[in-house]
Amino acid sequence: MAKSDLATARWAVALEGDPFDIDDARDLFAKHDEVQVRIIEVAPDRNPTVLLAKEFENLSSNSEVSEASRRIFDLLNGIMFVRDRVRKPVQPGAVYERREDGRWRAGTIFANLAVITRARLSAAAVVLQAPGSPPPTPAPPSPHMVWMTEATRDDTLADVLTFLRGEPDWFDLYKAFELMRDDINCKLGQNKYEQMGWPDKKTVDVFSESAQVYRHSRAKWPEGYDLITAIKSDKARALVQSLALIWLGWRYPAKT
């Protein structure tokens, strides 16, 4: 959402969750201008953190905004898992609508949103320059900003992030892995993982075959794998997190 949109946004959705995780979410989505989603702290002494989204601005009711926010929170939590798997997901809270007088419906918690936001953005935008020098080149969006934007139009990316959105179990981990693996196979050919930075097929197969132990009955367990020899959930989460980070970097290389 651009700077000019923040002061006139119609809808806001509060974030709920562990304060440290909310702080992380705000740090990830508070600083860039041209984005689909922004998370800002409005007033430090009151339930302060809200999500603004371009998608909300075409909606006409609290229920529509609430429904749309669930999908955005899924993507947000998936991105947060890729960044740090040791965290708890954040959840959508109350929906607020700006009234014609500029205040927010359902109380005055966010009454000063426009004023505070403009002040903070103005302060952050001040850059000292020599007279006559060209304006500074805008910084490219950070990777997580790109992932959020691309997920709104890329079903594969959206599905991967959604499977990783909370505290993924073996089913979710394997589905995310399966989508990434199939995407790589489609673009590079079968089992050419190392070309894009993943470990070799043997390492990847250890995860895949371990998953079958946890996802299926004993009759379908791969030869040589059982609850003792299969990798554990914590190690599986760490592996899928690393695979997702590499896959995302390959699919959406950073711009300089």
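Next protein, fold it too.
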Amino acid sequence: MQPPADSHQQAAPKGFFGHPAGLSTLFFTEMWERFSYYGMRGFLILYMTKALGFTDQHAGQVYGNYVGSVWLTPILGGLIADRWLGHYRSVLVGGIIIALGHFTLAFHALPFFYTGLFLIVIGTGLLKPNVSTLVGSLYDHGDERRDAGFSIFYMGINLGAFLGPLIAGYLAQQVDWHLGFACAGVGMLLGLTQYILGRRRLQPAIDRLAARPKPTGTPGAPSSLTVEEWKRIAAVVVLFVFASLFWGAYEQAGSTLNLFADRYVHLELLGIKLYASWFVSIQAAFVILLSPGFAWLWVRLGPRQPSSPAKFALALMFVGLAFVLLMPAGALAQGGVKVSPLWLVGAYFIQELGELCLSPVGLSLVTKLSPVRLVGLLMGVFFLSNAVGNKLAGWSAGFISTVPLPTLFGVTAAVTLGAAVIMALLIRPVRGLMGG
């Protein structure tokens, strides 16, 4: 039996690469939001160590607190959308607050710096889980296009993440730090414009979300959840733990590896001057190149594709191997040699094989496993893994000037490869919790 919203789906404009038309609106909205976020994040720790004079430890702590909080507040944002604002309005209000935060950072006084970060944290908490929930709600339950749709959506995220550091990072490092912050704010305004103009295409998703049961009483109270729902929530929690370790390694691109690029990498390639903030774009560039292939692969394999827990194990293995590759580069740099930027390019390529096995798949999985009345909240819980991982990444950056680089990279590799083995052993039990 088809949901009532299907009549809207049929009347909606033609699809987007074989997917619901609303995917194009969310694709470009999230692209510009990620332009603003990653554009600023690409030079944030460099700004603190160079312009503000923070020590590595202090900058790493502030960075970790900020990016960790950015991924922590989606729990509240999902709850607010589920119970009060609704998902469409939550994304709209969140985007406005994010833009205000970036423009606040354009002012020079230190209090504006912390105020701007705070506003971005609050705004992202409202926007991030709910835009992903809208993507999932574009599809019927059991629609096999869902994983492929999230992979396309993820490509949009990374198109913004690719352009942001290149443009805002250049303006910040070459012209003026605060011009880079303002550039990020302009990106968020463009995202809001796209979102408002494309509202009609989102109506099927809005209708599906409006038709679901509203939460009453305490969210997730034992009396309101079945045993099967509790098992699926438990599966989300297990995957959350391993996703946290993955992000702890992967997100060092903006912290430890950003400082590594600035201090130990020869910032020139084929006669072109490079900026440390640009290296953050490399991850996104590989996602753009690889996402269509992964989207095609999951659809092609259909029921024969690896299970979601197996994809998580593969992701941890790849990110661990990336840091194994960086160990000899760290040894060369420790000896006083400015290493080739190709070391980081190679490491980021391997990392992206892992990210595409985990992040879009994880987003899709949460929308499938969550009880319908708690999908926004559970999406926020999944994003908590990014909060933990980013906090770990900021903490790691504090050791770059005190711990030998091969040791620093080697510990990260050992933790993630060990987690990959454990996750592989847990594939069958977790699939049992998922209930098929």
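About the second fold: Residues 146-175 form the longest helix (30 residues).
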